[in-house]
Amino acid sequence: MLPPLISLETPRLKMRPWRTDDREAFYAINCEPDVERFLAPLTRSGSDALLDRINSQFCANGWSFWALEEKDTERLIGMCGIAPVIWDAPFGEAVELSWRLSSQWRGKGLAKEAARASIYFGLNILKLERIIAFTVPANNASWGLMERVGMRKLGYFNYDALPEGHPLRQQLLYEITAKQT
Fold first, then answer.
1. Range of the domain at 37
2. Is residue 20 in a domain?
3. Is the dihedral of CA 144, 150, 154, 158 positive or negative?
4. Chain segment 87-110, per-residue pLDDT in tens
C-alpha cells in the first residue's frame, strides 16, 4: 500500500505534491538567471526528470520537495521540502532540506516560511535525527537562510558529480538536529 501524499500549509503558502500542469511553470523558474546562477542548468527534459524523481519520492514516502503555491494567487512560485539524499554523499545518509524560489517572490520571507515548515515536519512529525542543507559558498542568500532557520555550519565538501575546478563543486554543509530544536 502506498503512503498518503502529504501537503503542508503555512500562513501564506500551500506546500503540495506536484501536478502535471506544474511542469512548464517549474521549468520557467529553473531558467530564471537568478535561480540557475548557483545551480547546474536544466534543460526542459532535465527539469521534467527532476520532477519525476521528486514524484517517485512522494510515491515511496508520501513527502519530498513540495510545490510552493502562493495562497492568494494560487500561483506556483517554487519548491521547498525535504527528501532523502540518494547519491553517495561524503556526509553519509541524510535527509536534505532544499528550496528554489522564483526571483520575483524572493525577499518576502516565503522561503524561510517554507523551510521552517519543512524542518518542523521532518524533526517533529517524521522524528528525523537531523536534516542537512548545502549550497555553494558564494550563495549568501541560501546559507544565510540556513542560519536564519537555526541550521549550523559543519564545513565544506566537494560534490564529486562535478569535475575539479567546476564553480559549483565546493559546497557548504549545514545541519539542524532534533536536539537543537
1. 8-180
2. yes
3. negative
4. 788 887 899 999 999 999 999 999
